[in-house]
Amino acid sequence: MAMTAEAMANAIISRINKSTDASDANNKFYAALCEYVEGNAVVTYAWSAVDPEATPDPMVEIITNLKTAGSLSPSGASDCSSALAKFSSDLNDNAKTWEVVWPTGFALPPAYVIPTINITASKADNQQDAMVSVCKEIIAGIKKATDTVPGSHATYSGAATFVSIE
Question: Would you list the domain boundaries of the chain?
Answer without folding.
Answer: 5-165
